[in-house]
Amino acid sequence: MDELVSVALEEVCARLAPGIPVVDLWPALRGTLDATGLPLGPAVKRALWARILALRVVNLVEGDGDGVPISAGDPAEKDFEEAERRGMRLVASAGIRDNFLGLYERRFAKSELSAVQKATLECVAASRTSGVPQSELCKKFRMKGNNFHFIAKSLESQRLIVRQSTIIKMKDHGAEREDASQNKHIINTNSLYLSRYAKDLNMTSQQRIEITKPELLGSNEEANVDAFRVDGAFDVNSKNDISIHDYLPAMKAICDKLEEASGKALVVSDIKVDLDYRMAYGHRAWRNVLHRLIDARLVEIFDAEDDDKVMLISCYLMPLSNTFLEFILSVPNTSRQD
After folding, report:
1. DSSP 3-state assignment of 202?
2. Interacting residues of 144 by C-beta distance below 8 A, sequence separation 6+
3. Does residue 288 surpass a pLDDT of 70?
4. How far is CA 245 from CA 115, 288, 292, 313, in A?
5. Using CA atoms, how far apart are residues 185 and 139, in angstroms rounded to an integer?
6. Residue 141 · residue 132 · CB < 8 Å
7. Residues 6+ apart with CB under 8 A from 34
8. Which residues, listed in sequence order, are joined to residue 325 by a DSSP beta bridge?
9. CA 301 from centre of chain
10. Sign of the C-alpha dihedral, residues 276, 277, 280, 281?
11. Contact indicator for 111, 24 with CB cutoff of 8 Å
């Protein structure tokens, strides 16, 4: 039951100032209930209801907007069904909401977060493990990318959020399947996560998040507005296909080719043919992998003087195992700016 109470409190905090309607709390806990083997019946609901309100950091609120906390002795305090009938909401106190955002010691800080910083932090928190693309927050707050970069960077420097490299691919509406790869609008950005949720990502420096949207809604600034509800709160678009792309296998394949070559050098065009880097998509993928290999000081590229060919040479004389390659790539590299 303690685990269930903890998850319920997290669910209430994640809804921030508006809180969560009582009727929506039970479906949100279904996954945890299934994992603990507890049936979602009246007895479990009554026990959980009593435990939540006993915490004294969760208020039962009636009405729209900020709402009005119910008075002591209200029947809804002991009867969750009464609270559901009256459309009540559970709202976490301001202090516990700040703790959820990671603002544990803000009252002792010399300066307060700006309105945009606080709103950004709340949007990121509401997305939880889904994250929020930085480009979409730029549109939400009507800020230029360079200006919003400093907002995100300031929150990251305070260890309130974590940024992960991300690309967003939006398929052009009406594109045929065979033309889909040539009809994509690609945005390079970052996904922002609240620090408490970023701990479960376990991503390496050679992994990148890729988000594929179902279609390109238009070429103007309204392309991503479907990610936000009318009330301005962030809402995850469930139609998006989110995956994590790992560059390590592709990097290892190129290194293996160089290890097998005489003099640890090969013509770039030959490597691309052997490893099937073809067409426009393949050339883009090659550039991404090649830049990562060069930045990691694993390979060098040069022009051959005798036959006017571009050559790739390995910088390491010993064979590169997966473990050693992962170790090299785990060392922070500051030579290239994001």
Report:
1. coil
2. 138
3. yes
4. 34, 12, 14, 25
5. 16
6. no
7. none
8. none
9. 34
10. positive
11. no
